[in-house]
Amino acid sequence: xxxxxxxxxxxxxxxxxxLLVICGLLAGYVFDGEIKTxxxxxxxxxxxxxxxxxxxxxxxxxxxxxxx
Length: 68
Prior knowledge:
Number of helices: 2
Number of strands: 0
Helix content: 55-70%
Radius of gyration: 19 Å
Distance between the termini: 41 Å
Order of helices and strands: HH
């Protein structure tokens, strides 16, 4: 009885973690351009002199530098 509960809990946690990883990766690919544009726009709001940055120079990843 306890083993069954542990097994179901483990599979449920693995499923939830897997879904979160997939959603994070999809969000990174789908919204990549919008995130980069918003980042440059917000930086320019806070700077005295606006910066010119190409979106190819900005690297965006949801999980590559995760805890940082």
